[in-house]
Amino acid sequence: MRAILTRVKSASVTIDGTRVGEIGKGFLILLGVGPEDTEKECRALAEKALGLRIFEDENGKMNLGLDEVGGQVMVVSQFTLYGNCRKGRRPSFVGAANPELGNAMYERFLELCTELGYAPQHGQFGADMKVESINDGPCTLILDTDELMDRRRA
Predict the structure, then answer these.
(1) Is residue 80 among the annotated active site residues?
(2) Largest CB tally within 10 Å, which of 32, 38, 41, 131?
(3) Cα(28)–Cα(31) distance, rounded to whole angstroms?
(4) Which residues contact 137 (CB under 8 A, 6 or more apart)?
């Protein structure tokens, strides 16, 4: 699994002109699922992402976590995180999970966020979403379970 995690002052997601999710200070997580991802990867990514201490303390150091700042979480599915741009000018998305697995892992990630104490606002898997955010910093991180779990897929 892959995630782009951005520390935000606020974020929202709109589908067909209707705002379906909105947060204040917290994390906007764009989530991509690979074809071999399982519960194990899903849990590892959720625990790592939600445990990050990337909010500034009174000394300006990134030292505070979501709980310490009363932060919220928004998760948006993003299969394009598995886009391959090596050849040509059009990305290939064959490295992304099929929609059935992608949706199942996305839904499981949302459940894990709730279990870990951060009931997320979210988009809708496969929908045409408009995502807005006011980045804080900016501070944006890339998380990949291949790296988190110290393995590389060929």
Answers:
(1) yes
(2) 32
(3) 10
(4) 7
Choose, from 79, 109, 121, 145, the residue flagged as catalytic. 79
* Catalytic, out of 38, 80, 93, 114: 80
What is the Cα–Cα distance from 109 to 44, expressed in whole angstroms? 10
- Asked whether 37 and 145 are in contact (CB, 8 A), the reply is yes
Amino acid of residue 96:
A
CB 95 within 8 Å of CB 80 = no
Note if the pTM is more than 0.90. yes
CA distance 106 to 78: 10
- Partnered with residue 77 across adjacent β-strands are 31
Per-residue model confidence as pLDDT tens digits over 32-61 = 999 999 999 999 999 999 999 999 999 999
Point out the catalytic residue in the list 78, 109, 121, 125: 78
What confidence tens digit (pLDDT) does each residue in 69-87 have? 999 999 999 999 999 999 9
